[in-house]
């Protein structure tokens, strides 16, 4: 008894194999899907960045300014010592963390810088507020030769201005970084006769 054996024809094998055109179509479809996914993710990040994670400026507030020390003698020894204690708070209203670099607080007398205090850099979690205490002491050698100082002391009022600048970045989804700067200026009047603060007026400004 003879058994006939038959091998699959080459035509049948060729018909089962994907054609080059089919491979190209499949590759194009995969590429389109990948591009669509990437565009969708980018669009989602943009929407989140403009809504939920929209960057907001940090709020720097001078809570209080206290006159710690005042000693003025412009007769013979020409001695001057003015020390202010400043309580400062920085609020992060963003949904993400805010990291700021080392900054400083300056004390000016009629446009002349007379004291400086460092504000160490830190990071504030979302929606949190940190407070810091600063001590500003006037450098006598920068002020004692100012002729206007004598008339101010005689009049009983010493006008000063405190200035702070907080600069940092808001990180959105750990990819987008937004640079933010917050400014605070406080005008302070000191009663040299009664050694007390007369008044203080603060202005706040931010820049994205």
Task: Give the CA-based shape.
Answer: rod-shaped
- By CATH, the architecture of the largest domain is named Sandwich
Q: In the CATH hierarchy, what is the class of the largest domain?
A: Mainly Beta
Low-confidence runs: none
> Helix proportion of residues, in percent?
10-25%
Query: How large is the share of residues in beta strands?
Result: over 45%
What is the number of helical segments per DSSP (H or I, 4+ residues)?
A: 4
Descriptive overview:
The protein has two domains: about 10-50; about 60-205, Immunoglobulin-like (Sandwich), CATH 2.60.40. The protein has helices at about 10-15, 20-50, 140-145, 145-155, and strands at about 60-75, 80-90, 100, 105-110, 110-120, 120-125, 130-135, 155-170, 175-190, 195-205. With about 210 residues, it is α+β, with helices and mostly antiparallel strands. The mean pLDDT is about 75. Strands 3, 4, 5, 6, 8, 9 and 10 form a seven-stranded antiparallel beta sheet that branches. Strand 8 (about 155-170) and strand 9 form a beta hairpin.
